[in-house]
Amino acid sequence: MRSKSTLLMAVCALALAIGAYFLGRADQARAPVPMHVAVAGAEAADAVADAAPIGASPPSDKRGMLPPPNTALKSSYAELQARANGGDKDAASRLLRDLDSCRGLRGSQWNNDGASNELTARSTDGMNAAQLRTYQMQLDAMQLRQQRLRDRQTLCAGVDDKLLDTLLPNLAQAARLGDAQARACYLERGPLYDSRSLVRHPESLQAYRNATSALIDSGLAAGDWRVVDLLQQAYRPGSQNLLAGLIGNDPVQHYRYLKLYRLGAEAHRVDQLDQQLTAAAANLSAAQVAQADDWAQSALRDHFKDASTQTTPQGWDACDF
Fold first, then answer.
1. b/e map of 68-80 (b: 16 or more CB within 10 Å)?
2. Within a domain: residue 168?
3. Is residue 112 very low, low, confident or very high in pLDDT (cuts 50, 70, 90)?
4. Burial, 305: exposed, middle or buried (Cβ in 10 Å; 0-12, 13-18, 19+)?
């Protein structure tokens, strides 16, 4: 039998070698049908203006190379913000993700330190070969997590609360410029995505109200299944998220969007969605169901070239950047 120290040294050496290998690889390497019921009081012009950060210009075609990955955000922020305000979708998307990464850095460090301490303190005495292999993979994963944290620390060095306070307006700007994930996140959570910022800037709720109608329209016109799923959930009677609070529960609209979602569903989800449709239709008249079915077929034909809801797997997170 090898001693505990010999086994642990071998395991760690192998884990470091595997980790170096993967880190090395990572470094290479007809007229459209009306799509929704407009939000009361939301004007199209206000939706564009209020969704953008203060001082934003109309969208432009200006493009350019983005700073290299993991460039310190403190040094790249001014350029990225100016380009995002000028309508550069790529810059807006990059800025949003960098800010989001820095906002969550402290929590990630805390969690990773706890998991690492627990893992390295684990005794290998009595482990069989299969258990040692599992331990090796856990050590490898830990090394990769630590490398990603070091990258984030480089990215976020010197980033203060003043910069982090721009996360929400930059989320809205990226959504307005067509970033599908940002649009889904902003529609679902709006200013609640950064509750501390909401407390400091309660006016962001009105900006969300003004922006929502235009974002829904743009998402549906783009054939974005994320928006369809968010709407069918928000319109469902009893739904209480922020989007539901704004557009209101509506059994007819719920059935309409659920039917559209069902038309694009993957085979393994059809049975469950059919059951939901049957339950939703039970509260509607035959005429309402027929009209909604026709609308869904037309919407699918006119707007959804990708007839698959694979971008919204069960349990998907609208704000997973």
1. eeebebeebbeeb
2. yes
3. low
4. exposed
Domain hosting residue 202, numbered range: 44-66+161-303
What does R_g of the chain's alpha carbons equal in angstroms? 24
Q: What pLDDT digit, counting tens, does each position of 187-236 carry?
A: 999 999 999 999 999 999 999 999 999 999 999 999 999 999 999 999 99
Cβ neighbours of residue 81 closer than 8 Å, sequence gap 6 or more: 53, 95, 166, 170
CA–CA separation, 154 and 157 (whole Å):
5
Q: Identify the helix (H) or strand (E) that includes residue 206.
A: helix 204-221
Nearest to 87 by CA among 126, 51, 113, 116: 51
- Confidence check: pLDDT of 130 > 70: yes
User: Which tokens is 191 given?
Assistant: 């200013």
Q: Into how many domains does the chain fold?
A: 2
Find the helix or strand (DSSP H, E) in which 261 lies: helix 251-263
Token pair of 186 as six digits: 């902003």
- Clarify whether residues 137 and 17 are in a common domain: yes
pTM, rounded to two decimals: 0.75
